[in-house]
Amino acid sequence: MQPWQRQFSRGFTLIELVLVMVIAAVAMAIVIPTLSHSVQGRRCGDAAAQMCALAGYARTEAISQGIVYRLNLDVPGRQFYLSMQQGGAFVDLGEEFGRHFELPDDLMIQTDLQAQSDGLYVQFTPDGKCDPATITITDNRRNQVQLACQSATEMFHVVDPNIKQ
């Protein structure tokens, strides 16, 4: 080796490491807000899926047990829950599916159901029918997910709010 030739090490210089860290920090600053919006928008879908599952359970139980079930909506309290007819009154189920499900603070429920004297609900009867209804779950960024049952014999399902049924 000649004296004017230097032997280079195979490591990184401090400047190269700092540059890589700056690039990684910029990339994270761009990606993290996008991911948080995605997670927040997904909360509407999760709540809608949970409500659809409860509606399906209520319909199945009404048919198999031969009693009326209700999917109750507490719009101001942002809650929904199931109840069943026992005697002449509707009572909580007393099981996991009967607990009160509360929406996160940034979500709200809207519906086209008419309030009855004993509350706001979708009723499922032993003959497999239910009250037609549309339920919309909206977050504070105006993302929406709609659940719909267009006829008494149809099951609740998630629909695109931008498409006319």
What does this structure look like?
This protein has 165 residues and is an alpha+beta fold. The protein has one domain (14-159): minor pseudopilin epsh domain (minor pseudopilin epsh fold). Helices cover 32% and strands 27% of the residues. The protein has one helix and nine strands; from the N terminus they run H-E-E-E-E-E-E-E-E-E. The chain has one helix at residues 14-65; strands spanning 69-74, 79-86, 89-92, 101-102, 107-111, 121-124, 133-139, 144-149, 157-159. The strands form two sheets. Strands 1, 2, 3, 4 and 6 form a five-stranded antiparallel sheet that branches. It has a four-stranded antiparallel sheet with strand order 5-7-8-9, covered by helices on one side. A hairpin with a 7-residue loop joins strand 8 (144-149) and strand 9 (157-159). The longest helix has 52 residues, at 14-65. The protein is elongated. The model has no long low-confidence stretch (mean pLDDT 82).
